């Protein structure tokens, strides 16, 4: 199925919190804190608004799941 929204992860620093929770290159972030995103600037805006934790809705190889990312 073709993805028409979200932001594709192109790289993940292996020392980062994102890597620790399992985010991988090729993942598509669909939502940040339950707000749909369709651009890097949209992701950045929602990420910066978050307090200590960021809830990501991610699609990977046809599966959709949540990741909780400490900020």
Produce the secondary structure layout.
Blueprint lengths: L6 E2 L8 H4 L7 E5 L2 E2 L3 H10 L3 E8 L2 E8 L1
Antiparallel strand pairs: 1-2, 2-3, 2-4, 4-5
Provide a short characterization of the protein structure.
This protein is of the alpha+beta class. It is built from 2 helices and 5 strands, in the order βαββαββ. The longest helix has 10 residues.
Describe the 3D structure.
The mean pLDDT is 93. With 71 residues, the chain is of the alpha+beta class. The protein is built from two helices and five strands.
Q: Show unreliable segments.
A: none
Task: Determine the number of helices (DSSP H or I, runs of at least 4 residues).
Answer: 2
Strand content: 35-45%
User: How many strands, which pairing sense, and closed or not: the largest β-sheet?
Assistant: 5 strands, antiparallel
* Elements, N to C (H/E): EHEEHEE
List keywords for this structure.
single chain; 71 residues; alpha+beta; 2 helices; 5 strands; 35% strand; globular
